[in-house]
Amino acid sequence: MKKLAFLMVFAILFVSSPKGFAQEEEIIINSSLYPKHTMPLVRFPHMLHFDDLGYDCTECHHLYKNGENIWTDGDETSCQVCHNEPTVKNEKRLPPPQQKLNLKLSYHGLCIDCHRKYNHENNTKAAPITCQGCHTIKEGQ
């Protein structure tokens, strides 16, 4: 009886844990904000970042209200829901509020900044920081 109770508690904790929810192994970043891609698409190894590196979902997924991240699993997670400013030439010259909403700057800022930090802290070059390091797959692959 104790064994059954333990298993039931474990099962409930597992299912209610964020790691208990199924996630796609890899996500192909292919935003509809870009009708024509000028670079190959990006293959994002979701589980590598989540399981292997131990990141919390809210490192990337967020929904701010009154300065607090209120995102919960199951909320809309498409970046372009909020980051919907289209890419323009010289987007780094946009006013800061527009830069935060620019999808390209959001992706690149999040990825490259984290990759540089990881490489520095681990004395490695494993995390890509160049265009070709992430932009590797042609559309339709």
Automatic annotation (TrEMBL):
Keywords: Electron transport, Heme, Iron, Metal-binding, Signal, Transport. SUPFAM superfamilies: Multiheme cytochromes. Residues 1-22 form the signal peptide. Residues 36-135 form the Class III cytochrome C domain. CDD domains: Cytochrom_C3. InterPro entries: Cyt_c_III_dom, Multihaem_cyt_sf. Coiled coil: none annotated. It holds the Pfam family Cytochrom_CIII. This is Class III cytochrome C family protein. It comes from Thermodesulforhabdus norvegica.
